[in-house]
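new request in #modeling-help
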Amino acid sequence: MISARLYILQRLSALIMAPLVIGHIAVMIFAVNNGLSADEILGRTQNSLLWAAFYSLFVVCVAVHGAIGVRVISFEWFGLRGWGLDAVSWAVFFSLAGLGFQAVFSVTGGA
Amino acid sequence: MNREKNTLSVEIWRSNTDGGAYQAFSVPKADNQTVLDVVSYIQQQLDPSLSYRFACRVGMCGSCAMTVNGVPRWTCRTHVKRALGNSVTLKIAPLRNLPVIKDLVVDMDVFFDKWVRAEAVHHPTRSRHDPIEAVDETAESRRAANEAIECINCAVCYAACDVVTANPDYLGPAALNRAWALVNDSRDGGREAILRAVSQTDGCHNCHAQQSCARHCPNELNPTKSIAGLKRESAKLALREFFTAGEQG
């Protein structure tokens, strides 16, 4: 149910996500401790290619990693097989990617 | 009271047209009594229709494995006292994750078919006319092969594996452990074929590393470690092939 390809994708996405999670938490702590307002945060992130790239990569990794994880749970715990299993996996992938990119565009898009 | 002290309460899984049910027996206690002794006593003295499987009685053939009080065990080397723990009844059932033929006998075909699917078969590099290849016992790969090699094919690990329960097509710890022994055997010429076979959809990458196989293996092997090795080497092969294909394309 999980081939070498999906296994590698899940491990690679986890590997990339680990430093991104730390970076995200560090930014949150910095923003809170320095009392930045929403406008001040958006002032730094909007039109920033760096933040757009950072969170876009994060979203892709979350979508890949989450979809494969839910695929395994759906198979082992709920007995999903065949096209149903593929449908759930892709649905989770597109849902996470859609929600994530919506947030990325909102925060890093033009003012 | 005295009778209770000298007899052992045993429940054994018996097949019937509805699938099966436990049947109760009383067996005389003995000081050095294995679970296989108990099953043999019942079959020889109380009910000759009881079906079970054994051969060597010394922990070499791997044919007498059963579920004893919920735990998969080799019954010839398991003392009743150890299997009982705090329980007063010895409950004996066939191995989990395998189809039951009758009573305590399971169909091992599924188990061994997976060894073939995992390419856990020898791929010779020499013919009978060539000299025997020397084995370097100090080589790191040989040490890895030796660690995995003492499997007696008892299927205890297969019965203990929750991934097999969730996915009956999963190759299972025994076949993958054997595959890992061959991947590390300098005399085997099928390294890449094995790594490709264990990378199939229901292959080694499905292992959750819960380590039930290592916990219950009567020979104290560690199939989880072998599977981790297969995951590592097969991932390397897949990545190498991916980038090589990119270069060629």
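bot summary: The mean pLDDT of chain B is 94.
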